[in-house]
Design goal:
By secondary structure, the chain is mainly α. It has 3 helices and no strands. It is elongated, with a radius of gyration of 22 Å.
Length: 109
């Protein structure tokens, strides 16, 4: 069974802040060493890749996973002996839904 345990939280605002910090340093280096064209090309490439990472981090997710995470946290605070959760995600309201089944183990290794 696939492990889904997340070991580190890395919010979008932190990614954006780090990208901005690195871009700031790149601009500082480029202004101080403007005659070094080879390094400038490399720094421009790095800045372009960082901006791509920043754009990807800001994209909307497919559904509000934070709401689900919050509900799980609430239920666990009420009863910390819970060993799992059953979550049904329906895309359409149907009398007889046709659902797939996923099972994941979230335990630490």
């Amino acid at each position: 069974m696939r492990q889904l345990y997340k070991t580190e939280e890395f919010p979008v605002c932190e990614i954006q802040k780090l990208v901005n910090d690195v871009n700031s340093h790149i601009n500082h280096i480029q202004s101080n060493y403007s005659c070094d064209t080879k390094s400038s090309e490399l720094l421009n490439w790095i800045a372009e890749k960082l901006n791509s990472i920043s754009k990807i981090a800001r994209r909307d997710v497919r559904f509000d996973y934070l709401f689900i995470q919050s509900e799980i946290d609430k239920l666990y605070k009420i009863d910390n002996s819970l060993t799992g959760f059953i979550i049904r995600l329906d895309f359409n309201k149907e009398k007889e839904p046709n659902r797939g089944f996923l099972e994941f183990n979230l335990t630490k290794k």
